[in-house]
Inverse folding.
């Protein structure tokens, strides 16, 4: 039930907004995020925008992960299980 | 949304698995609080990808699952009041009550409707002024602010026929319940990402402070979860205990302050009964007296039916991390998603349902 889906704000009409969910448009409530702007990415839960999805922060996390050194003794991995994700 | 898809990048996931395997040189166990994480972990096969001595176990973070049998029975009883139009999120429908489910009550004549948002329930109340529209409020801090907003909306619209049966709960007391219970050994907690979107990561500070327990708040993609595990391993290996955040794109230390204010305007803390954990002090959200006109427990005299948990169901132990679902003798035999015995097999966040869906799939 704590599932939340990212979407992008397309239009704002007072306390509601039209949001794009990967091509599907839905009306959501922005009462819990009155400061959102058109173009913002938000997480939507039970019809409410509950928090933002910050592309800059996402980029930072991805960079951090891709820079991580390979400490790995590869033998500890189970290569037959790779690529399942 | 490229930056969202990238969090499923298998190259990055492999990098993290290698890191974890290289860093963890002693056995350790982490609990994912959130049932959404349990499903993601099973779906991506993360338990199998991690080194054997890094164990993940599921926790109490499934709102439907932790709803007490008594509250389930009272919700079903509410549906049978004359004139009531009961609205609910979908996964409450098939949760077994002591004698029947909401779905069976509906087949027997109760008017029960599944809604996607509590705002849909408010709309139904507007459209059906001759009916009492009741919404079953089940959820943690992620869900409660929206339901609080629906009550404020009903107040603004002057509705006299919208009621909420509040079974909402706060997550920190459940984590305390697990740790105070001392039944499972934990070295760290995978913090619930969407609860923390509302509460902020600061809400989990008591874990390092009072329990010397590392917490890393996590997102829901494979890279998010593996990064979280990697960060937990690092804390354990260096003897640290702090709240860290692996879900920086959506979680901030102070959370969504507007949502917190709306939640606190409508709800106040009260003791609540949890399946598996019993009564936890100040763990429930009761509707404040100022909004009692919208409180289903004030409006209706909900009868106290004698409640009994489903015989043989070990959902309570699953929720405390004491057993894994396959250890329940009914798992996959008598209890399946088509014939659920307990809520942990019904809910989209239930651990039994996650194990059944993804493990049996993996086994063929
Ligand atoms: S498998 Fe079914 S009966 Fe067993 S604990 Fe899970 S929900 Fe209960």
């Amino acid at each position: 039930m704590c599932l939340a889906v990212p979407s992008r704000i397309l239009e704002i009409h007072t306390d509601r907004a039209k949001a794009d969910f990967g091509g599907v448009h839905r009306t959501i409530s922005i009462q819990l995020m009155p400061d959102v702007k058109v173009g913002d990415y938000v997480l939507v839960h039970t019809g409410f925008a509950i928090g933002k999805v910050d592309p800059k922060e996402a980029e930072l996390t991805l960079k951090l992960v891709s820079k991580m050194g390979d400490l790995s003794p590869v033998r500890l991995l189970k290569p037959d299980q790779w690529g399942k994700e | 949304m490229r930056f969202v898809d990238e969090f499923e990048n298998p190259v990055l996931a492999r990098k993290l698995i290698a890191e974890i395997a290289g860093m963890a040189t002693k056995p350790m166990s982490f609990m994912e609080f959130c049932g959404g994480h349990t499903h993601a972990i099973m779906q991506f096969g993360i338990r199998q990808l991690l080194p054997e001595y890094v164990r993940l176990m599921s926790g109490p973070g499934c709102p439907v699952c932790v709803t007490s049998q008594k509250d389930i029975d009272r919700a079903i009883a509410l549906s049978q009041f004359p004139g009531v139009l009961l609205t609910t999120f979908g996964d409450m429908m098939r949760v077994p009550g002591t004698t029947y489910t909401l779905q069976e009550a509906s087949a027997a004549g109760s008017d029960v409707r599944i809604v996607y948002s509590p705002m849909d329930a408010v709309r139904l109340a507007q459209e059906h002024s001759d009916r009492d529209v009741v919404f079953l409020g089940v959820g943690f801090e992620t869900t409660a602010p929206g339901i609080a907003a629906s009550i404020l909306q009903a107040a603004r619209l002057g509705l006299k026929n919208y009621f909420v049966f509040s079974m909402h709960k706060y997550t920190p007391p459940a984590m305390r319940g697990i740790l105070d219970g001392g039944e499972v050994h934990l070295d760290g907690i995978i913090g619930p990402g969407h609860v923390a979107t509302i509460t902020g990561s600061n809400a989990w500070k008591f874990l390092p402070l009072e329990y010397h327990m590392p917490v890393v708040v996590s997102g829901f993609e494979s890279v998010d979860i593996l990064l979280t595990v990697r960060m937990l391993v690092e804390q354990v290996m260096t003897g640290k205990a702090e709240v860290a955040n692996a879900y920086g794109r959506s979680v901030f230390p102070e959370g969504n302050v507007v949502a917190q204010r709306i939640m606190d305007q409508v709800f106040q803390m009260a003791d609540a009964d949890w399946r598996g954990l019993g009564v936890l002090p100040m763990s429930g959200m009761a509707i404040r007296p100022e909004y009692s006109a919208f409180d289903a427990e004030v409006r209706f005299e909900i009868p106290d039916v004698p409640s009994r948990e489903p015989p043989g169901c070990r959902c309570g132990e699953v929720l405390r991390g004491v057993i894994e679902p396959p250890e329940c003798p009914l798992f996959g035999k008598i209890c399946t998603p088509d014939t659920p015995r307990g809520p942990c097999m019904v809910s989209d966040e239930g651990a039994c349902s996650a194990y059944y869906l993804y493990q049996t799939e993996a086994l063929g």
In short: Chain B has a mean pLDDT of 96. Chain B has two domains: 12-300, 315-357.
